[in-house]
Amino acid sequence: MSTTPVSIKKAAAAALVAALGVTTLAACGTEDVREAAGKSGAPAPKTVTLVSHDSFNASKEVLAEFTKQTGFTVKVLKSGDAGEAVNKEILTKGSPQGDVFFGVDNTLLSRALDNGIFVPYAAKGLDRVPAAYQLDKEQRVTPVDSGDICVNYDKKYFADKKLAPPVTFDDLAKPAYKDLLVVENPERSSPGLGFLLGTAAKYGDEGWQDYWTKLKANGVKTVDSWELAYNQEFSGSAGGKQAKGDRPLVVSYASSPPVEVLYGEPQPKVAPTGVSTGTCFRQTEFAGLLNGAKNPEGGKALIDFLISKKFQEDMPLQMFVNPVAKDAALPELFTKHGVVVDKPETMAPEKIAEKRDPWIQQWSSLVLK
After folding, report:
1. Which residue from 70, 246, 296, 365 has the fewest beta carbons nearer than 10 Å?
2. pTM over 0.85
3. Which SS3 state, helix, strand or coil, does residue 195 take?
């Protein structure tokens, strides 16, 4: 989602290897798309600029297909992690860096909408996207992908200890899991913020503080980024093994196990990590037409394409997130090694807008001091 993964990453290829973890591949550049789009000597297509967080990725073939269909070349401008990228667009409101912004998620959505960086646009094909993902009634943003922020566990550690891995939030505070969990700082990390919101959704406006008091007493460790947590501290990831990480529990994504399989050397038949499905918070990422876009026609065409079956089915192995379109199929890697989270915690964007900043301040005072 919105974290910049590491060198196993692309997990964000998102989680893309985003939030996940493996080196984000460079997006297809203008010359690449022109070459793929056609060698007939036709005039070069006009450019539409997509601004995104660093974890955006799409295959060259798919971007070339967009150019073939529309005549617009896609230029990708990566702008830091999700929070940083959104803040840059707020600062340049009215004179944006591009035409479309992709990567604002439901934890940051209110900040973007309140600052007016998007203009309404009803994307073609939106009827294929469930209403549960369409969080803005004014259609200033279009849902593109979803993922679940969840605790991941190192299967080998728990098998060796003959200890059942935790399943729920409550489990994480039990003595059996003392000094095993590493989380990210919600002030700096999208997964960290999602996990905090998940605990608030689970235990309520006041109860989440008591819960974090228990986690702190149970030895929870906090680091600044997903990359540090997953690829340095977590014993179950390829990066964590190399770094001799000693925490077998980490806040990551439900799509992290497929990443470990895809980038394993040699590639394992079974994912070495699992997901504690009772610790999840649903994250949805959106795209929007930027206020002041120089190429609004191209921007609208690109938003339409982002929810097309072609792009939606390319996305999972590029960014390790789930498509939102009902007709998009998941790749076998996801269906075989991923997990389905039936009842993730969720929270209304309006409540996130009201509570996010004070909760982060309270969390910092409670956990970091």
Report:
1. 365
2. no
3. helix
